[in-house]
Design a protein that fits this description.
Shape: elongated
Largest sheet: 6 strands, antiparallel
Helix content: 40-55%
Structural class: alpha/beta
Strand order of the largest sheet: 16-13-20-11-12-17
Number of helices: 34
Oligomer: single chain
Distance between the termini: 43 Å
Radius of gyration: 36 Å
Length: 949
Amino acid sequence: MKTHLGPHLEKIWILFAWSTLVLAFIIGHIAAQPDYLALAKAQYPDHDWVRSDVYSAAPVVFVPSPDATDEAVVIATGKGFGGPFVLGVRAQKEEGTARVKEVVVLSHKETPPYLQKLIRQNFFRQFINKRVTNDFIFDEDVDGISGATISSKGFTKAIAEALHRGAINHLGLKKTWREVEWSPGINEALMVGLFLMVFVVVYAPKNIAKPFKIALPFATLAFVGFYVNASISLGTLAGIVMGYVPEFRQHPIWWIIIGGVLTSIILLGRNLYCGYLCPFSVVQDLLQKVSGIKLALRPGMAQNAKKVIYGLSWLALVLIFLSRHPALGSYEPFSMMFSLQGLGIQWYILPFSLLGSFFIPQFWCRLFCPVGLYLSEAVRLRQATVRRVGNIFIKDVTREISASESYSKATDTLTILFGTQTGNSKRLAYQMKAACDANGLPARVKSMAEYPADDLAQESYLIIITSTYGEGDPPEGAERFHRQLFADDTHKLNNLKYAVLALGDSSYRFFCQTGIEFDERLAQLGAERFQERVDCDLDYDDQADAWMMSAVKYLQGQLEASCANAVKPVDSTRAEQAYYNKGRPFSAKLIHNERLTADQCQKDTRHIVLSLEGSGIQYKPGDLLGVWFQNSAEEVESLLQSLAISPDVETEVEGKMMTIRQALVEHFELTQCHPGFIEKYAALSQQQDLLDLLDDNTSVREYARQHQIFEVVRKYPFALSPEQFLQCLRKLTPRKYSIASSQSKFRDEVHLTVVLVDYQKADGHRYLGGATGFLCQRVSMHGVVKVFVEDNESFRLPEHSDAPIIMIGPGTGIAPFRAFLQERTAKSHTGKNWLFFGNQNQSLDYLYKDDWESYLEQGVLSSLDLAFSRDQQQKIYVQHRMQEHSTKFYAWLEQGAFVYICGDASHMAADVEKTILQIIEQQGNLSGDEALVYLTNMKNEKRFLKDIY
């Protein structure tokens, strides 16, 4: 067995790094305790100083020994821009007072250039001959030094406090001096205003944020950079850890910046400093605009740079902690850039970083900046903490991995495998596990995407829960498992007992085909079926519950249970009681409904925004939003007239009595027709046209796809009882939409991109889609929409932030890629991004045009290729654009790019995949079979991902 040392060495390094930092911190703290007497003697070797006998309180006072004179040294301590300092204030006692004779710096952690500036400009000399009872008010009695204001304030405050307290404690004087008063001024107001501007840019609608977005960089550069020079550095962060926090009145700008940034991380989970308030980031952007050169980082370079940053910052922090001197370890070029003061090494770092920024966007930030890295880590830690704490109170069963991943081979266990495209099979798999847990049965859940078929030989009991994708194909996550199971060399499974729960849609020809194939193949391999397969349609809940309850009852008699509980009914929501899900949706409010396409465009595409405020719902880019909708009340009234049913007659639905009108509006599917409805309605109504359709399965499926139930009943009216009609229908099922927003940018919102299904028949009647009509037209502003999030683990951004991605999303398939780019921008991902988008007309249906052009301008989008099929005589689609850039496309694949496809499954997805195979074959000089292996390897590496419908 091979031993991989990489992870172990990394752990050893992390342990070593943390240990040395903690040790350096402790050693530095112990060594930094000032010996005031030794400092005084070293400064004044001609005197034998001793602590004053009359000392009773701070400050420390030393007098000559053995014969005390009227001279004394008062120790003043405080904090400057760089850190703490110790001053010796030599004073001469006079009649009723004392006079300052000299101020010397005994010890300091101040930034050397600032201290030298104070000394050169005679800052300390102005205290000579002042009385200890003077006011010492900054900018009135004492002049500050421009460019070293914070240090000037710190020294002035320390001297004033030491002398005033000494006058009271050691001279017995009463207070006659004025205290320093502080009130917020223009600088503080400007700093708060900058933060407000950032909030507008980040959270306000684009039309409001746009002017602020233009002004913010210049305001940041002028105020934070050149005027107050308050950039956050590694020394700043280290100083906080060491307790070098300036008093608020001394440096309020520091408190506003640091407090605002840390508060935004804690409360909002956002880093509002990097990219918004960092003046050096603005400088880099300006250099980029001047040069126009945007060299891309090579794959893995950003990840390696991260290691370099950690190494450099580790060395710097060890130096800082040992010396207790933040300035010694701050290698960032900020001070040098904005005040022309800093350590010698910064003179070399500054031109290097500026030159790099001329060619590579955000060169310093992406490759060397420790502040950005640690603030991003703080955001990540905050989000992880929120999720972890949330999971304590919100038992998110579908996300947690069973604590019992493996069991002793001495005990038979149940393995539950799921194959899912939209999440339904996964939810049922965890529901089955919850039922087993409740009855003391050992069970584990695994995705087919992560389970090799060879492991079946070691299983005793198996349950497969799987959906069918499209026309009889296995879900993408189950493709490999399906292929392995049907291989010629698959082992016999004579010791396996199994059961299959199949999900499907009877509108399709090969209903539940994948479940059927698994069931039959396992039997061929010698496995024993312990429960008959059930094929579930879209309204599967009741069937699935009954099947699982029967399975649990059987397994209790077979598996070695940990307790002898009676069989408990399987509650469809019990496994997920504590969070919002399909059975317990959240009532979101519609807060925005904007048409994205031009009025003259045939397609009415809407940008829908729903508020999740107060829900605690978390989603990731790539996830789906399930939407429960209501049928049109007007269409239901018309339908009931065609059936000669009174709207107010009552019927029973799920054990509750309600009017037939309410039942049809809220509980039954009336837009998506299916062959089962045609068959049952034809039998009841004896309409010859419908009966003729039943002779050909293909014809009845095509007819069902092209007509709503509303249409069928309107065209073929017939008097039925409520019970007869309801028996023809399926239960209403939620529609699922790709989420078009990132929660990193829109915390309490979820965005959807929805095309309104809207068509008119020859009789002049207009029909709308069920969910699309509900979302786009029937829900009023601030009306309620019941929603839940469906995990889509098979459509996720790469784990490594520097990985390049290629996104292909014609039409509303663009939705998840809007979320992807928002997330990558918010998280400062460094990977390249290439977007292919297509629609019919650029002037009519270029969805989210402003977003893509903005991302392109910012450098977030490395490439944008558009295909508007009807803007020229010959139709052009996204696959044509891909072929035009085939050399570049293959180069990205070779660099490790992840490919994402979203949109229409019937034609687009197949055409795009075929084009990618052709590109691989042509550009890689491979045979057709070799290209197929190449693409298969990408799928196995989870670098080729699809979200198609």
